[in-house]
Amino acid sequence: MLLAEMILLLNSLRAGPGGTDRVIEQLGLERVAELALEEVLFRADLTELPHGNGDTFLIRIDFEHPGHEPVSALLRISPKEVARVTEETPRPVLSVTQDLTEVLVALYGCPGETVAGSRNVRWPGLWRDMSAFQPGVFPERRVLSAAERILSALDGGERENLSRIAVRHRSDKWGAHRYAPHYERHLSRFRDRQITFVEIGVGGYHDPDLGGESLRMWKRFFPRALIHGVDITDKSPHHEPRITTWVADQSDPDSLTALAEKLGPFDVIVDDGSHVNDHVVTSFEALFPHLRDGGVYVVEDLQTAYWPAFGGSPDADDNTSISFLKGLVDGLNHEEFPFGARPGARATDALISGVHFYHNLAFVERGGNREGSPLARALEGAGLPAGAPNRKRFGKS
Fold it and tell me: How is the chain split into domains, by residue range?
């Protein structure tokens, strides 16, 4: 149900005036407010507050909507956790009230639409008497940091680079690997779009509770995206707003195709799964047809193309993932082969507009690839294969 709710919520912001009113009526104000609060807390990262004097304090957030009673959330913030409570004891140090539609637009709407005209910020348990304020003593640093993080999240959150986000969420895409800057270079154009993102391989092997680090990294980097994780093991403990996991076998094309037909089309697909060469090729052939034009397909950990234990070969022969991807480069230039004689021609030749390689990492861009080759056609019309030895006819020596 969570995925369906998030799709309704995201689509409501595309529907123009009244879209959020309709989804609030459909799902209920309390449920929509709960989804918004979870997103705000995810972006605020209140568990990472600076160390202070160790005091526990309360913060209250109220979401309002015309014609409804406000929905309140009371947060108890301690050095060890952030918890929801029901009793306002002690008195909240900070109280924030804002129209729920404004919050949804800031979180999931188009960039630049953020407004906070309805926001009301009060410090009921903190600054009763400004004359009693003593700099450096009161208010406590953690309280102000918490307030700053919550207000920033209500405005949509800060834009950190992917390397910092990877470190925060303990993803090996920065540390064990050096993938994050390459990802940011190729995927930043999707950052503020409502995209559908899928990653094969949730992590943690057969333990359902382990893994999910990269999924949460992607959730933060793409604040308007639906994130899908695919694994051969049930990883449902990682479900949360905008993150859903699915069980599928990447060595089984029917399993992948059925999932893609349910969830696709996709904007970004990342293969960080088994890294077995046959599985990499099978996954690409099954999922690439479900990638949108302008989308990107990413394959990680290509070192296994050279490792026999993963079905690789030291010389990266024709049966390896790296050899398969090298063939896509020939496909980029499929119109240059004389008389249509490209060896190993593929259905994707006219659908791939770019292939980029880095250390153990490849990006494949989907897009039209039918620019034509006037020179190749002229040579073919003259009965000459392109690159024939008689180069002097064309001013070559």
Answer: 2-127+134-154, 162-375
CA–CA–CA angle 164, 168, 169 (5° rounding): 120
* pLDDT per residue rounded down to tens, the chain (397 residues): 789 999 999 989 888 778 899 999 999 999 999 999 999 999 999 888 876 656 788 999 999 999 999 999 999 998 888 999 988 777 888 899 999 999 999 999 887 777 788 999 888 765 544 444 444 444 567 888 888 899 999 998 888 899 999 998 999 999 889 999 999 999 999 999 999 999 999 999 999 999 999 999 999 999 999 999 999 999 999 999 999 999 999 999 999 999 999 999 999 999 999 999 999 999 999 999 999 999 999 999 999 999 999 988 887 677 899 999 998 998 888 877 765 567 777 888 889 999 999 999 999 999 988 877 766 666 666 665 554 444 333 334 3
Q: Tokens for 227, please give them.
A: 């994130």
Is 275 a known active-site residue?
yes
Neighbours of 178 (CB within 10 A): 14
d(CA 347, CA 145): 54
**Of 275, 279, 290, 334, which one is the catalytic site residue?**
275
Q: What is the CATH number of domain 162-375?
A: 3.40.50.150
Q: Which CATH number fits domain 2-127+134-154: 3.40.50.1980, 3.30.1050.30, 3.30.56.10, 3.40.50.620?
A: 3.30.1050.30
- Taking the C-alpha atoms of residue 179 and residue 176, their distance in angstroms, rounded to an integer, is 9
